[in-house]
């Protein structure tokens, strides 16, 4: 049986080896051209990372492919190829909500690829501060969850920061209940980020009602605590379980099986048009009848679609609100530029957070 199997596999493996030899030669040729691109960019002081260009490359390859590789597989492969090429040009750094093992770190790797220098930060505030101070070139922050809604602290910081939103990523969130032993014996409390506790509250009530729930700064921090304290269970993802060596008591305990968190990428450089973009803005209106209708009228007038609309109190004590709006298209497109120009004249306050490629 083994001889027959090996005889059938041998020619197939030889074909794969030959194809691999061609691939590595082509990849090195590609890397050499990327280095030439880097020299040109350096001469003109252009940014190394261009998310709109990388999205265009991936989209073109997905259209060219006849299978059997799926579109997601192509995106994953080429993201790493382009990340490795970027690393040859210059080391790119990104700040994220730490410690190591958080969903923010996972989002960072999925967006930039693994050839990225990550800077774990103890808070969302510190992520923004690190990028503003130049300690990192980019920041990765959660902005909304499909179950729990907007991440308030990120919303507040987007209002005041000088940074621009240059990209986004929607990450599926799969929560696990983790302990040092992989069992619940002797465990009296469960630690997690407040959003994770909220996203798993029905499951916890039904399956572990005896556990005291304690909010901590991140799920990875909860995992770190659980490593050294046998009375603590943590809610965290697979990356945290692997990094901290914890056992999975129960997997996929989130109440919504389609639970996703949207992350945005903040930095100092604007992102050019990719052909499939959206623009994020913050506006306020005067407190008068029909003010919100007048606010949205320029979008309809210029045929610009709105994909997200949220309000947040302005904390002025006068029942005023900031409206966080996402619209389809790039701010450089004529219809979007015209709509924003009209909107700026009608709004009491307008801040354009940035235009960037859509992830969905």
Key features?
EC 4.2.1.51, multifunctional enzyme, D-Maltodextrin-Binding Protein, domain 2, aromatic amino acid biosynthesis, 5-stranded mixed beta sheet, 12 helices, Preph_deHydtase, alpha/beta, Alpha-Beta Plaits, single chain, CM_dom_sf, 15 strands
Q: What's the helical proportion of residues?
A: 40-55%
What average pLDDT do the residues reach?
92
Structural class: alpha/beta
Low-confidence stretches: none
CATH architecture of the largest domain: 3-Layer(aba) Sandwich
Pathway: Amino-acid biosynthesis; L-phenylalanine biosynthesis; phenylpyruvate from prephenate: step 1/1; Metabolic intermediate biosynthesis; prephenate biosynthesis; prephenate from chorismate: step 1/1
Organism: Candidatus Burkholderia verschuerenii
Subcellular location: Cytoplasm
Keywords: Amino-acid biosynthesis, Aromatic amino acid biosynthesis, Cytoplasm, Isomerase, Lyase, Multifunctional enzyme, Phenylalanine biosynthesis
Summarize the structure.
The protein is built from twelve helices and 15 strands. The protein is an alpha/beta fold and 360 residues long.
